Amino acid sequence: MCHVLSGWNACIALVCGNCVVWKGAPTTPLVTIAMTKIVASVLEKNNLPGSIFTALCGGAEIGEALAKDTRIPLVSFTGSSKVGLAVQQTVSQRFGKCLLELSGNNAIIVMDDADIELSVRSVLFAAVSTAGQCCTTCRRLVLH
User: Fold this and answer.
1) Which residue out of 101, 117, 134, 138 is catalytically annotated?
2) Quick one: pLDDT at residue 78?
3) In whole angstroms, what is the distance from residue 5 CA to residue 43 CA?
């Protein structure tokens, strides 16, 4: 899961009283561990157990186990459409729910009546703020 998206989805889950078990990308285990430790410390400082936000590291076998686990009512997945389809099919077989963010390639549309200064700042932020490492990064610009 993209670390930015995991933060968005995890915050919603935690605010609603749910625990979060997440698996970061297998190529970023140190980021996964660091993010989990930061969130756990914030939770503990607010008299909540840090373990309500737990991470797993590994590859596809971990993701597959999460998708199959009936104790997990909702699986959020960020990644390719091919893998997302497999996740959705696995979770659906057990009547679970999915939140899928697949193959993002976001565009920004700037109309002819837009505030150009604000548009330039917004496009720049959307294009470079995540260094292209998130499916919400702006990759296309459509100008009227």
Assistant:
1) 101
2) 83
3) 19
